[in-house]
Design brief:
137 residues, alpha+beta, GMP Synthetase, Chain A, domain 3, three-stranded antiparallel β-sheet, two-stranded antiparallel ribbon, 3 helices
């Protein structure tokens, strides 16, 4: 581990209905399943984190971002979720992210993108194995 301090997160959720959960964070609460389903929240979280990371990297590289748009797409086979036999994992089978950026002046966007990919914590958790331990109380 490096010299940076870890930031701890605790989030809880309560069932509102079979398809909605009220999620409580240190900063507030929201309902998953109301405006977006859990997969869409995950995808939106990736894009939001890429946006934030892209902004931080641009600042560090003296790149002035004029516009930044992002899109993401992926496929889920809900067979396993529904209890049906399938060879597919129950989660997203892969993700394709597209960033469209306009900057002021000449910028090394390849270096910028490489740093964004390297520094984004949420896309790192999706791209690399992060242990998830589920316990029952």
């Amino acid at each position: 581990m490096g010299s940076s301090k870890l930031t701890h997160y605790e989030v809880s959720a309560s069932r509102e209905s079979p398809q909605r959960a009220r999620v409580t964070t240190e900063d507030g609460e929201f309902i998953v399943g109301h405006d977006a389903n859990p997969v869409e929240y995950l995808l939106g979280s990736i894009l939001a984190c890429l946006n934030s990371t892209a902004t931080m990297v641009a600042r560090d590289m003296d790149v002035e971002i004029e516009t930044l748009d992002a899109s993401i797409e992926g496929d889920v086979n809900y067979g396993k979720y529904l209890g049906k036999p399938t060879e597919d994992r129950p989660g997203l089978q892969g993700l394709d992210v597209t960033l469209s950026v306009e900057t002021a002046g000449d910028a090394d966007l390849d270096a910028w993108l490489s740093a964004v990919e390297d520094r984004c914590p949420v896309s790192d958790n999706v791209s690399n194995e992060t242990e998830v331990s589920v316990t029952l109380e």
